[in-house]
Amino acid sequence: MTNYFKYPSVDTEYEKWGLSVLNAGYARIRAAEEYPVKNHPSHHYFKWDDWRTLQEYQVVYILNGQGLFESASVPLTEVKAGTAIVLFPGERHRYKPDSATGWDEYWVGFRGTMIDNLLQGGFLSRETPCFSVGFKPEILDLFNTIIDNIRHERAGYQPLVSGAVMHLIGQCHSAVKQEPAPRRASEIVQRARFIFRANIDKPYTPEQVAQDLNLSYSSFRKMFKSQTGLSPGQYFLQLKINRASKLLNDGTLLVKEISASLNFESAYYFSRVFKEKTGMTPTEYRDMYNTSASCE
């Protein structure tokens, strides 16, 4: 995970949409590393001892590690991996990772009458800002969608990210309502799938996932395959092929750039694997997509 954040400009035309995304990003804070990362604007940067008050809502999602959260409405609370924290405008707060573990975080900041209505309707509360949502791939996908859109700021992207934020809040609300809790094997596999998605662009291996989950690789592989029908390595490779297909459809990156972004050892190897999985080379796949799109 390479740290990234952006504070895009907001078109006043879309303020009337009812929800505007103001910033988003992700960060990996290693054990004993300074927090938060530097270079944020002064109105967002804070130190633990100084607290912070924002003029916007935020959702902060903790993937790995643990830490502490405190606000004007909530006493000092332990935060574990799989927790989403909602921050409220005008609400003094502070949070930080445990120096012994660090943490991985995604966040998005936003404002608008849609969210004000959720607060007024009791669906969000300053007194209960922490949601134990677990490791749902859908949540990570929504964060990645938001970040990808604000990174490129394509024409008309604001309604797309506004919808993704509403979907994100809906996923968080749904996750805490669902019962019963998943059994241990299902929860482990769900978290493993989540870790794979979060590290799709890294030289990450199934053996490292097993290590992160404190399992032997043989036990992890058997458990994962029984739940998904695929070995961990096959699953991770299929994730990369799916992401590559989306990037090819997008059309902004060269084949060799897509190969590098997904950490394939070479463009040749990427093309060979892509053809094995799809029946087409990356170039053939892109040409087919462009042809079908032009016929619509």
Automatic annotation (TrEMBL):
<dbReference type="InterPro" id="IPR018060">
    <property type="entry name" value="HTH_AraC"/>
</dbReference>
<dbReference type="InterPro" id="IPR018062">
    <property type="entry name" value="HTH_AraC-typ_CS"/>
</dbReference>
<protein>
    <recommendedName>
        <fullName>HTH araC/xylS-type domain-containing protein</fullName>
    </recommendedName>
</protein>
<dbReference type="GO" id="GO:0003700">
    <property type="term" value="F:DNA-binding transcription factor activity"/>
</dbReference>
<feature type="domain" description="HTH araC/xylS-type">
    <location>
        <begin position="190"/>
        <end position="288"/>
    </location>
</feature>
<keyword id="KW-0238">DNA-binding</keyword>
<dbReference type="InterPro" id="IPR020449">
    <property type="entry name" value="Tscrpt_reg_AraC-type_HTH"/>
</dbReference>
<dbReference type="InterPro" id="IPR009057">
    <property type="entry name" value="Homeodomain-like_sf"/>
</dbReference>
<keyword id="KW-0804">Transcription</keyword>
<dbReference type="GO" id="GO:0043565">
    <property type="term" value="F:sequence-specific DNA binding"/>
</dbReference>
<keyword id="KW-0805">Transcription regulation</keyword>
<dbReference type="Pfam" id="PF12833">
    <property type="entry name" value="HTH_18"/>
</dbReference>
<dbReference type="InterPro" id="IPR003313">
    <property type="entry name" value="AraC-bd"/>
</dbReference>
<dbReference type="InterPro" id="IPR037923">
    <property type="entry name" value="HTH-like"/>
</dbReference>
<dbReference type="Pfam" id="PF02311">
    <property type="entry name" value="AraC_binding"/>
</dbReference>
